[in-house]
Amino acid sequence: MKVIYHPEFLSATSPVFPLDYHQFVRGCHLGVFASYYEPWGYTPAECAIMGVPSITSNLTGFANFISRRIPDPDKVGLYIVDRRFKGFEECKHQMAHIMFRFCQLNRRDRITLRNTVERVSAILDWKQLGKYYVKARNLALQKVFDVITDTAEFEDEEILE
Description:
This protein is mainly alpha-helical.
């Protein structure tokens, strides 16, 4: 197992990792993002879209979104560590157990899992999520400025594609 921590943006012109972000992510076997808090959590979503299984915590919006829509996220390669109701030691052991089980998968099973997580990532498509962004934007504008916005431009199918 190799752990890579790289605290700057990835770019094909970087002398350290001459890869673009999507190339870097696709080259990984598993993303680990066990944040203590993350309003949404784009990185596990980006992993899913690129067919990379990931670990996140149930203190992220992403994990809450996934757990409401997928009955058993572990089976599709979206592992959720319970940081809300468990202490640090339990979380650490849960994460280690997930990573250990993942490392026990053979090549064929990892490929199958990549395909599965990429398939379920369709729920993260802008066609699905765009309507929630528009609704949140309109609610914020209404609450802050007491205006009701015309959303016809955002409801157009072409914009959400």
